């Protein structure tokens, strides 16, 4: 697996931790006490998420001489809402995954060390929960000009030697966007915590923390330029054969498909007859294929895998979506056929681009769906497709035992996170 970025920087508030309610409620309480006739509301004050205390004071036109008194009052109010501050669903699992796969992680935050002695963890630029995964945390206190200025990211680059094109900064506010743009690094918007209401220009939009993984990583074999050319040539040939009637054009488009077969056969050392059978089985306008996968969980939170007969490797039960089936009905059908179990679908995990997640030599574009299902009745019998079914603990599953063309450990972890998250946002490529 090749990393698109080797350094990932995170904002804290609104990106890793859901602090909006605590911070904004405390600010509203203080402002209301100072100015009972204020027209500011909770909603309007959310614009200060990601701002420093000093910038907030200036914009609200609060007197300089009252800075310490008002800040202390805000701190006391935050303590009342401390129980509402928690990591966003899925973010810690993604951070742990990135750390385990040697991505260098850093924090760029508007938090200042001033309040850490009073508020403790909820004001720390590097909370205890994150210390196992993050080596560097750049707070507003450590630079001359905090966000939206680029100083914090430039400071991280100075400490680590990271280059601009190696860094992805993930945040939720316009202050984060401007910081990344000024520093010349790619920015990913954490949509799950953002209140930005207008279109902004950034490299990535993350609806769910799990979107981060497939953005950072690309699979080796699906990103060779020759492979892309071969697939494009195959698509041009197939589309041409669908619509053309001129005999000479037909010959040209047939030759394009043959060239595509020859390229893939040569580069993968596969028999050309086998490649031709796979490529030429499609008719009509070329579109992505749909692969449906079931993440079946039992009462212990274990996940069901099936051992494939053709290679002895384990996989989530699933397969191509038949023409007469929907994604959900096909998922149920595949589990019944491969695992001998009648399951109940309960949650859609996502629809992903397999070229970004899986190691596969398939010569066409594949979209894979994942659906959470609950364990059901049924007896298993070995068959032509599968030799065994078994429930695994999530932590005992590794890439070494999996057929990576269909199932990877990150996909299994993503499904487990979806299973355990009440308000899951599907991952959509």
UniProtKB/TrEMBL annotation:
<feature type="domain" description="Nudix hydrolase">
    <location>
        <begin position="287"/>
        <end position="416"/>
    </location>
</feature>
<dbReference type="InterPro" id="IPR006439">
    <property type="entry name" value="HAD-SF_hydro_IA"/>
</dbReference>
<dbReference type="GO" id="GO:0006281">
    <property type="term" value="P:DNA repair"/>
</dbReference>
<dbReference type="GO" id="GO:0005829">
    <property type="term" value="C:cytosol"/>
</dbReference>
<dbReference type="InterPro" id="IPR000086">
    <property type="entry name" value="NUDIX_hydrolase_dom"/>
</dbReference>
<dbReference type="GO" id="GO:0008967">
    <property type="term" value="F:phosphoglycolate phosphatase activity"/>
</dbReference>
<dbReference type="Pfam" id="PF12535">
    <property type="entry name" value="Nudix_N"/>
</dbReference>
<dbReference type="InterPro" id="IPR041492">
    <property type="entry name" value="HAD_2"/>
</dbReference>
<dbReference type="Pfam" id="PF13419">
    <property type="entry name" value="HAD_2"/>
</dbReference>
<dbReference type="Pfam" id="PF00293">
    <property type="entry name" value="NUDIX"/>
</dbReference>
<dbReference type="InterPro" id="IPR023214">
    <property type="entry name" value="HAD_sf"/>
</dbReference>
<dbReference type="InterPro" id="IPR036412">
    <property type="entry name" value="HAD-like_sf"/>
</dbReference>
<dbReference type="InterPro" id="IPR050155">
    <property type="entry name" value="HAD-like_hydrolase_sf"/>
</dbReference>
<dbReference type="InterPro" id="IPR015797">
    <property type="entry name" value="NUDIX_hydrolase-like_dom_sf"/>
</dbReference>
<protein>
    <submittedName>
        <fullName>Haloacid dehalogenase superfamily, subfamily IA, variant 1 with third motif having Dx(3-4)D or Dx(3-4)E</fullName>
    </submittedName>
</protein>
<dbReference type="InterPro" id="IPR023198">
    <property type="entry name" value="PGP-like_dom2"/>
</dbReference>
<dbReference type="InterPro" id="IPR059176">
    <property type="entry name" value="UDP-X_N"/>
</dbReference>
